[in-house]
Design brief:
Largest sheet: 5 strands, mixed
Distance between the termini: 23 Å
Strand order of the largest sheet: 2-4-5-7-6
Helix content: 40-55%
Shape: globular
Number of domains: 2
CATH class of the largest domain: Alpha Beta
């Protein structure tokens, strides 16, 4: 049964990857056709180009989602250094509160962990009302715990599982103007499940409003 499930996931991955890849060819043709148009309203062309850019981004997200169905090999990784790098990248787009501590070495899938935490940071930045995002690491206990905290409107408790479904957006609590395809948390969950990690969503416990997203890595995995 495990083999059949694995084969099914592999087939789905190939199918999603193939469809997503093939869609990029007509998008390229449309972009070329737009560039050759003469005497057309420039504003309309710009809007169409933005739509094509959005389609291309969604395809990229779908390819990432398809690839997230498999687990990579694990290797020794300094989680502190990885988070320090991610915090530096995220700080280019908005303020990030992060204080690196001593090395935290664990055997993990580094690329997967980078993607999971990166998606959580991007989610916090997008929905954090422009306020600083906090990144924390607890490596002292039995499990490794990485937390990303924002200062936005949060997610209602009864909808915290729904946000892990692909293309799910909670418009009652988070604005569509903020962008996003609705795949960030779905990809994070797929990768976490593939590596036996756990993602938790709850309210901040420090008296501030906002969401606390955590990745929990068991020392035994």
């Amino acid at each position: 049964m495990a083999g059949e499930v694995r084969a099914l996931l592999e087939n789905r991955t190939v199918l999603l990857s193939g469809i997503s890849h093939d869609l990029r060819t007509p998008i390229t043709r449309l972009r070329l056709a737009l560039s050759l148009l003469d005497g057309v309203d420039a504003g309309m062309v710009a809007r169409m180009e933005r739509d094509l850019d959005e389609m291309n981004r969604l395809i990229g997200d779908m390819l990432t989602f398809a690839r997230a169905l498999g687990a990579e090999d694990r290797a020794e990784c300094d989680v502190t250094a990885l988070l320090d790098d991610l915090a530096g990248q995220a700080a280019r787009l908005g303020p990030v509160e992060w204080t690196p501590g001593p090395p935290c070495v664990a055997r993990v899938g580094e690329a997967a962990l980078r993607r999971v935490v990166g998606n959580l940071l991007e989610n916090a930045r997008r929905y954090g009302d422009g306020k600083p995002v906090t990144l924390r690491l607890d490596c002292d206990g039995g499990d490794i715990r990485i937390e990303v905290l924002d200062r936005g409107p949060g997610i209602p408790p009864d909808q915290r599982e729904a946000v892990f479904r692909p293309f799910t957006r909670l418009e009652t609590s988070r604005s569509r103007d903020a962008g996003g395809s609705g795949l960030g948390l779905a990809i994070a969950r797929q990768l976490a499940d593939a590596h036996d990690w756990r993602i938790e969503l709850d309210d901040r416990a420090d008296g501030e409003s906002g969401l606390r997203a955590a990745v929990v890595i068991s020392r035994g995995t």
